[in-house]
Amino acid sequence: MATALQNLSSYDPNEIPDGKGKRIGIVVSDWNTAITGNLLQGAYETLTKFGVNEEDIILEHVPGSFELTYGGKLLIEKSNVDAVILLGCVIQGETPHFTFVCNSVTQGTTQLNLNYNIPIIFGLLTTLTFDQAKARAGGRYGNKGDEAAITALKMIALNTKYK
Ligand SMILES: Nc1c(NC[C@H](O)[C@H](O)[C@H](O)CO)[nH]c(=O)[nH]c1=O
Ligand SMILES: CC(=O)[C@@H](O)COP(=O)(O)O
Fold first, then answer.
1. Which ligand has its closest atom nearest to the C-alpha of 125?
2. Residue ranges with strand state E in the chain
């Protein structure tokens, strides 16, 4: 379903698990920081809205989206978290570089999910234009950071159910 039909910030608050006591890592890319800063704000506000303590949010910045998966690996291995959220924004330029970065983060995130026993959330915007990114980072289609935070809380609950 296209984002135009499913707002990224729409959810039923009654269906969101309690985040109290959960430790959540966030790795955010500094490329397109005008966008990723909004994603981070959305994720942070949503996590605390549903009970995650500020001191239980472990935040790290990386230079670009390509580095998100390595940053996620570090937090998984060193910071005793219940989930890791990766936030980035890749915008198409003149060359095929966009495709390689997007594919790398996609495959790398999948690998982390399969190799470790905690959920790693794919909060990556992959857009053709800056305006498309703005629309998904607190604009008319909501905030991908909100979606990532909600997904993290739901996946932690699922993980706990099967521990
Ligand atoms: N063009 C974008 C990049 N490029 C940088 C790479 O992510 C990486 O940091 C570099 O290749 C060095 O390893 N990154 C983004 O996050 N967004 C872009 O639009
Ligand atoms: C995703 C990128 O790395 C891209 O924005 C870089 O732009 P270009 O392809 O014009 O070098």
1. 1
2. 24-29, 57-62, 83-91, 120-127, 137-139, 142-143
Backbone angles phi, psi at 78, to 5 degrees: -120, -10
Closest CA to 69 of 113, 37, 5, 12: 113
Euclidean distance between CA atoms 120 and 110, whole angstroms: 8
Ligand 2 centre distance from Cα of residue 127 (Å) = 12
CA of 101 to the centre of ligand 2 (A): 9
* Model pTM above 0.95: yes
Helix (H, G, I), strand (E, B) or coil at 27: strand
State how far the Cα of 74 lies from the Cα of 38, in Å rounded to an integer. 23
CA 140, CA 52: separation in Å to the nearest integer?
Answer: 27
Q: In what order do the strands lie in the sheet with 120-127?
A: 57-62, 24-29, 83-91, 120-127
Catalytic residue among 18, 97, 100, 111: 97
Interface confidence, given as ipTM, is 0.97
In this prediction, residue 5 carries a pLDDT of: 81
Q: Specify the residue with its C-alpha closest to ligand 1, atom 17.
A: 90
d(Cα 152, Cα 64) in Å, to the nearest integer? 22
Domain 21-161 listed as CATH 3.40.50.960: yes
Task: Give the residue, by CA position, lying nearest to ligand 2 atom 7.
Answer: 93
